[in-house]
Predict the structure.
Amino acid sequence: KFALVSTGLGFLVEKVKSDFSLDFSFSNHLLVEGGVLTGEVEIGVDWNDKPLIVNNLRKELDISKNEVAVLGDSDGDLGMFDAGGYRIAVDPVSDLLRKKQMRFLRTEIS
């Protein structure tokens, strides 16, 4: 099973979920009234919620921490890194995250 946990906006997260056939996604959502954006955001994933979401999903799926791989790039992913057994830092902008990672992935976009 694959899940995406992001503090980003839902319409972007749902696009990634769809494009990559992910099983679960958790994100924040722009609020709309009468077809118009209100300027408000419904927080579904706070910075500190990522490990809680990962642990709850792990329990729901009845899998161990060692069966969970997490990917992240910033301090907002530190707690989530503690919730996963296999930790991958992708182009990390956080020195703390670099210290917790098991693998490092650098991408190059032309």
About this structure: Residues 74 and 93 are 5 Å apart (CA to CA). The chain has a mean pLDDT of 89.
